[in-house]
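for the recovery benchmark. tokens below, seq after
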């Protein structure tokens, strides 16, 4: 039982030989599960650049070493190939728990949300680490409240194709709060809204990566359904700033982390077209089951309590990922993020 015992070898202690992170702050040892993925690798960059030690745990299900290769020679960086469905013992101060197959094409196949979260909470309890769960706006399902506040309980189909993800994350939130209340684990919960940026998988089916890759390849953008459904798109550096503010702050959450700018898929296609190629076209395809009709975060809580809000609009952020996508497509790296 990796979750029991809070004294002896696994009790909280200071680590000798730490490199100071900067004046007035001691360097932390931080685990990032899923750190070889899209969001995780940007988070790791930020933590390393501010002087902390980072251990990434990843099974490379959707992430890849290339996202982190620039850190391999850094003595404050470590990469462990491990599936979080199995327990692991490490002495750390903080755990950012991102490991999860996060796109529709991947998430059906994996119990990571429940078992992985349980194992990482067990580790947090054992070593006295602070634990941050990356939950999702999908916990609101097809929302009947708009925009969504953290107080909204959601409208989720428990037996649909997306349920493994939605209900998995809802269960992960429940486990996190139970451990907080019942075992005094310090926890933080982020509900992340659609995020885009460099290193996104090229082919995992998410709309921004699909549209950008399709236009670069001179293919039509595939709009599902009538294209009138809405989403709010956040640039990855804004999200990373929000995750760190949440971890370092005093509030458990949950906090919505997203950009309130709301776009229909047809509007998104128009912005992608303006950004990359004015001759781009669209084609309509049938929509997937249980697709939420609209989604937009109310971020008043994060603004007030974390002093955080996104700074990069869709029109500013899109060009920042286009170069990365273009390079990867031209270099024949058709697979995952770089
Ligand atoms: P990603 O697929 O790029 O990254 C997920 C990482 O987790 C990958 O590196 C993958 O290999 C790893 N992983 C998956 N299963 C694992 C396992 N069992 N053991 C160890 N590692 C495992 O996805 P992302 O977009 O970077 O998402 C990161 C987190 O943010 C996820 O928890 C996701 O649910 C959450 N989130 C992301 C978005 C978004 O728009 N990107 C929105 C809401 C929530
Ligand atoms: N979508 C689309 N074309 C695509 C991929 C997705 O029109 O090629 C739509 C999808 O139906 C959904 C929205 O874009 O309404 C966002 O989908 P995504 O999978 O990116 O995120 P999520 O549904 O998890 O918010």
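predicted aa per position
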């Amino acid at each position: 039982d990796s979750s029991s015992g809070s004294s002896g070898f696994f009790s909280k202690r200071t680590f000798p030989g730490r490199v100071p992170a900067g004046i007035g702050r001691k360097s932390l040892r931080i685990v990032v599960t899923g750190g070889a993925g899209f969001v995780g690798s940007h988070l790791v960059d930020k933590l390393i650049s501010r002087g902390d030690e980072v251990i990434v745990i990843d099974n490379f299900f959707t992430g890849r070493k290339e996202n982190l290769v620039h850190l391999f020679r850094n003595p404050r960086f470590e990469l462990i190939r491990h599936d979080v469905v199995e327990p692991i013992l490490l002495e750390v101060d903080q755990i950012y728990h991102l490991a999860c197959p996060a796109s529709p094409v991947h998430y059906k196949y994996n119990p990571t949300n429940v078992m992985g979260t349980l194992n990482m909470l067990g580790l947090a309890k054992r070593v006295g680490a602070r634990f941050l769960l990356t939950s999702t706006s999908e916990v609101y399902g097809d929302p009947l409240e708009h925009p969504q506040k953290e107080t909204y309980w959601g409208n989720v189909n428990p037996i649909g194709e997306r349920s493994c993800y939605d209900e998995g994350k809802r269960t992960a939130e429940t486990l996190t709060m139970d451990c907080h209340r019942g075992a005094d684990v310090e926890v933080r919960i982020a509900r992340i809204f659609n995020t885009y940026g460099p290193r996104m998988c090229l082919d995992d089916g998410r709309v921004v990566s699909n549209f950008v890759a399709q236009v670069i390849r001179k293919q039509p953008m595939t709009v599902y359904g009538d294209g009138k459904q809405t989403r709010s798109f956040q640039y990855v550096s804004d999200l990373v700033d929000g995750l760190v503010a949440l971890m370092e702050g005093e509030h458990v959450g949950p906090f919505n982390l997203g950009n309130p700018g709301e776009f229909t898929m047809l509007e998104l296609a128009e912005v992608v077209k303006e950004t990359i190629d004015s001759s781009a076209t669209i084609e309509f395809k049938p929509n997937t089951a249980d697709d939420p009709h609209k989604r937009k975060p109310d971020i008043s809580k994060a603004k007030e309590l974390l002093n955080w809000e996104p700074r990069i609009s869709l029109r500013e952020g899109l060009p920042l990922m286009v170069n990365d996508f273009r390079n990867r497509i031209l270099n024949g790296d058709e697979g995952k993020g770089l």
